[in-house]
Amino acid sequence: MKAEEHLLEVKGLRKHFSDQKDGPILKAVDGVNFHVERGETLGIVGESGSGKSTIAKMIMQLEKPTEGEILFHGKNITSLTNAAKRKLQIIFQDPYGSLNPRMKAKDIVTEPFFIHEKMPKRERYEQALKLLQEVGLDKEHLNRYPHQFSGGQRQRLSIARAIALKPDLIVCDEAVSALDVSLQAQILHLLSSLQKTYGIAYIFIAHGLPAVRLISDRIAIMYKGEIVETGTRDEIFENPQHDYTKSLLAAVPPSHPRLREDG
Ligand SMILES: Nc1ncnc2c1ncn2[C@@H]1O[C@H](COP(=O)(O)OP(=O)(O)OP(=O)(O)O)[C@@H](O)[C@H]1O
C-alpha cells in the first residue's frame, strides 16, 4: 500500500431510488465522503433510514452507486480481482439471513476456501476447528446447523466465516443490534481482539452511539443521506458540533463502560 493511500476511500457517493419512472426521487445516500485506514474502526451512526445500509451494500457491490466511487487499496471496487475481493467481507445483523440453514458450521466457515482454493478434507476439518475456536466456539459446534446455535453463537459463527480469508476490512452492518447488552459487549470484545491479532479494519454501522463508542476510533454521524459530522471518538463524545450529534448523545447513558482505554 502506498503511503498516501487509504485502505478504503469513498468519494462523492450517491444512491437515489425512484420507485416509478419520473416518480419522486429518494436520496438514500447523497454525496458521502469518508475513508478507513488499515486496522482502524470507523463507526457510522444514524437513525433508521439515514442510508447506512445502502452505503454498506454499495461497498459490497450489492447496490450500484448513482454517482461517486469507492476505492479499496486505491483501486475502484468494480475492477477488483476475486483475490482482492476476498479481503472485503460483511457481517449482517441477522446471521439467519446470511448463513445457509442447510449447512453445518464446519462447512459454513470453510466454504470461502472452496470458492477460492481447493483444500484436502483433513485440512478443511482443522481449519474449521481453528476458526470456530478463534471466535469462542468449539469442537462440539462443528456439526451443528445454524438453528442449533444461540443468537450470540450464531453471530460468532458468521464472524468465523468472515475472518476465514483474513480480510483487511469487515463491514459490520448492525452486527450486534439484535443482541442483548451483555452479549453485545462479548461480541465487541471478540471483534476488538480479532482486530488486534489480524489488523482487520471495521466499518461498524449502528443506529445508536453506545455500541459504536465501545469499538470505534473515529465516528461518522449520518442524517438523511449525508454525513453531518466526523471526528475521533473523543471529539464526537466530548465536543459534538452538530445538533443531531448532540441529540444522539443526549440518549447515551453517561457512565457507559469503555471496552478500550487505549484509543
Ligand atoms: N432498493 C430500494 N428501493 C427503494 N428505496 C430503498 C431501497 N433500499 C433502501 N431504500 C430506502 O433508502 C433509505 C435508506 O435506507 P437504508 O437501509 O440505507 O437506511 P439505514 O440507515 O440502514 O436504516 P436501518 O437502520 O433501518 O437499517 C430508506 O428510506 C429506504 O427505504
TrEMBL record:
It comes from Oceanobacillus indicireducens. This is ABC transporter ATP-binding protein. The keyword Nucleotide-binding applies. Residues 8-249 form the ABC transporter domain. GO terms for biological process: peptide transport; transmembrane transport. PANTHER family: D,D-DIPEPTIDE TRANSPORT ATP-BINDING PROTEIN DDPF-RELATED (PTHR43776:SF7), TRANSPORT ATP-BINDING PROTEIN (PTHR43776). One of its GO terms (molecular function) is ATP binding. InterPro entries: AAA+_ATPase, ABC_transp_ATP-bind, ABC_transporter-like_ATP-bd, ABC_transporter-like_CS, Oligopep_ABC_C, P-loop_NTPase. Keywords: ATP-binding, Nucleotide-binding, Transport. The keyword Translocase does not apply.
